[in-house]
Amino acid sequence: MAQDIASEKGTKIMEMIFSSMLGGNYFDGKVLGIFFEILTQLLIYAVMFSGFYYMAPHIDGVKDTFAQIKPAIDQALGQIISWGLLFVVLGLILYIVYAAVCGAIVTKAEDANKAVQPLVYLTLLGLFSSMSLSNNPDGIFAMIMSYVPFLSSFLMPLRLIKGNATGLEAAISLIILFVFLLGSIWWIRKIYPSLILQTDDNGMWKNMKRALQGIKE
Hints:
Radius of gyration: 21 Å
GO cellular component, one term: membrane
Number of domains: 1
Shape: elongated
Main location: membrane
Low-confidence stretches: none
Order of helices and strands: HHHHHHHHHH
GO molecular function: ABC-type transporter activity
Mean pLDDT: 80
Protein name: ABC-2 type transporter transmembrane domain-containing protein
Keywords: Membrane, Transmembrane, Transmembrane helix
Oligomer: single chain
């Protein structure tokens, strides 16, 4: 996502697009396009899992083991379908939105990987926090982090599966994530045109500063 956007900067195509439509609308379309592309891949995996789920009880050598773990799978699926799916969708959109910003900040496509590193670190933090949750599900760290927007999509579904969170706690975390996502989209839609049209190699933070100054003006 970030590298794709960075490669578009400074091209004649972008100038033509921004002369015929609002930059915010282009940003919306870009995010939705990537989201549905990822969603399609996830649906393919879901179909494959569904096929295995319904075929496993009839396969010799697998059905006995599957019968033992099926209750745990059903419990996890129940939580994922009810709450986890919402957290995954909103969390995915949030990461896509900020990946777009990372790509728009840089002026060279090869710098996109460097710009997206903060998101990579957040993802790793979410994964490592999920591992620590397995060892200490009642820990204060896991509880607090399950309300942080970039991490809640990792931790809150796990807390629900393990029975360490209530529906009210999940709802509060989801509302925080949703409000943060809406605020991020509103803010990024305003600075995105200024970022994507910058071609001077002044560094990521200077480009961001110029974009923010463009809003004030």
